[in-house]
Amino acid sequence: MSEDNEIMIGLVAGSGFDMESSGVELQKMPDVEFVGKIPKADIITPYGAPSSDISILRVRGVLVAVILRHGEGHQLPPHLVPYRANSWIIKALGAHIHIQFTAVGSLQDHINYGDVAVVRVLENATERPLPDLLEDVRVAIHPSLAEQTCDVLPKLASEAFRKAGVSNVHQQAAHVTIPGPAFAPKFKERQWKDTGYDLIGMTSVRPSLVLRQLRQHWVEIAIPTDSSSIGDDEEVNALLVSRRMKGLEQLISTGFCNFVEVLGSKLHLVDCACHWPMEVANMSKKITVEAERRLILSEKPHPYSCGWSKLIS
Ligand SMILES: [Zn+2]
């Protein structure tokens, strides 16, 4: 179990969490205590401000830092989300586990509204390179993305959502990320479906390199809210996504609380390749002080992880 004031887990919550009472409200769930908010104006990262204020929640005894990916009221389109700042501050606050919640479209007949999909494959179809923590400091490292998410967390997440009552949990989902902010044309969705992809969205792959550079254990939990390419009568739009996420609020919240509880008690079981060794990363001759700051390499607690409670408003 974690120390009383140690943030163990970061959560980046996407569409459906950022519309206040019309979206999922984790902080109002019975097993969740709202500890406070760190204003984003008080946070300094090498990459600017995060998407939103950071809510600190105590979930069944475990402290979780929550960022709204698109900001309060869904202000930021997918290509303007500060993925680097969001990921960096979660690690700086002390978290080694990074959970990403994403509303997605289903591309396959067997994945439906009410299911949960845990993602293992991420395709970058955004037409942009992945955000990189080191791109402007003249240090090149090449971590492996052979496994794109943590090896261990998907199984634990799947068990947590089954325990919450989800009948169909898809544990090995393949997710394609499109440019956005527009939803994809139907003919493109059919192409991705025929290629074998399960899910389609606008954000998921974008922080994957950054999270590997930060050596975070990370997992994506995707909530299928629509399936426009496979016969859904209702055309997908932002209001539909938010309404359907709200409809699953109890299920999502209970599954999340179950997952956090397991992570709080079984962190020592997380034994995976996320802490890849720098030595094999074909890196530049010398890691500079600035690169170390960006990668948060020091084993010492970061000033944010020791001092976050002073920033609570
Ligand atoms: Zn891991």
What does it look like?
With 313 residues, the chain is of the alpha/beta class. It has one domain (7-311): Rossmann fold. 26% of the residues lie in helices and 22% in strands. It has eight helices and nine strands. Strands 5-8-7-6-9 form a five-stranded mixed β-barrel, surrounded by four helices. A hairpin with a 2-residue loop joins strand 3 and strand 4 (62-68). The longest helix is centred in the C-terminal third of the chain and has 18 residues, at 249-266. The mean pLDDT is 89. Bound molecules: zinc ion.
List the helices and strands and how they pair.
Elements: E1 7-13, E2 32-38, E3 54-59, E4 62-68, H1 83-92, E5 97-106, E6 116-124, H2 153-163, E7 169-177, H3 186-195, E8 199-201, H4 208-213, E9 217-226, H5 238-247, H6 249-266, H7 289-295, H8 303-311
Parallel strand pairs: 1-4, 1-5, 5-9, 6-7, 7-8
Antiparallel strand pairs: 2-3, 3-4, 5-8, 6-9
The protein binds zinc ion.
Zinc ion is lined by residues 150, 152, 217, 270, 272, 274.
Structure at a glance:
With 313 residues, the protein is α/β, with parallel strands linked by helices.
What is the highest CATH level, the class?
Alpha Beta
Overall pLDDT level: 89
- What's the helical proportion of residues? 25-40%
Could you please say which CATH topology applies here? Rossmann fold
Give, in spatial order, the strands making up the sheet with the most strands.
5-8-7-6-9
